[in-house]
Amino acid sequence: MGLAAGLATSAFSPIARAGGDTIKIGIVASVTGPGADSGKYALTGAKIALGRVNKSGGVLGTHRLNS
Questions:
Q1: Residue 25: phi, psi to the nearest 5?
Q2: Contact call for residues 3 and 43 (beta carbons, < 8 A)
Q3: How high does pLDDT run on average in the chain?
Q4: Does 66 have pLDDT greater than 60?
Q5: 54: nearest Cα among 28, 13, 25, 27
Q6: 26-57 pLDDT per residue, tens
Q7: Which residues pair with 24 in a beta bridge?
Q8: How much of the chain is helix, strand and coil, in % rounded to 5?
Q9: pLDDT at residue 11 tops 80
Q10: How many domains does the chain have?
C-alpha cells in the first residue's frame, strides 16, 4: 500500500500538479540495520514502477515521474 498510496498522493497533490511535466516522488524505507533487506526490495520495486509508469507515457499521459 505504501508505494501505491505515495504514487496516488503525488498524482492528486496540488503541489505536484504545479511543478510542470515532472512529478518528483519519494519513499521511506530502511536501507541499513535489521530492515535493510526489506528496504532494498522496496527501493527496487519503486524503481521498476517508475520505469513502467514513465515508459507507458507517465501520469495522465503527460507527467513523468522522477525519484
A1: -125, 165
A2: no
A3: 76
A4: yes
A5: 25
A6: 888 888 999 899 999 999 998 898 888 888 88
A7: 66
A8: 55, 10, 30
A9: no
A10: 1
Of the candidates 67, 62, 34, which has an alpha carbon nearest to the alpha carbon of residue 50?
67
Quick check: 39 and 30 in contact, CB under 8 A? yes
Helix pair 36-55, 2-12: axis angle to 10 deg: 40
Candidates 44, 49, 12; CA nearest to 31 is 44
Which amino acid, residue 16? A
**Do residues 6 and 25 lie in contact, with contact meaning Cβ atoms separated by under 8 Å?**
yes
d(C-alpha 16, C-alpha 36), whole Å:
29
Q: How does 32-57 read in b/e, with b if 16+ C-beta sit within 10 Å?
A: eeeeeeebeebeeebeebbeebeeee
Boundaries of domain holding 38: 2-66
Strand, coil or helix: 4: helix
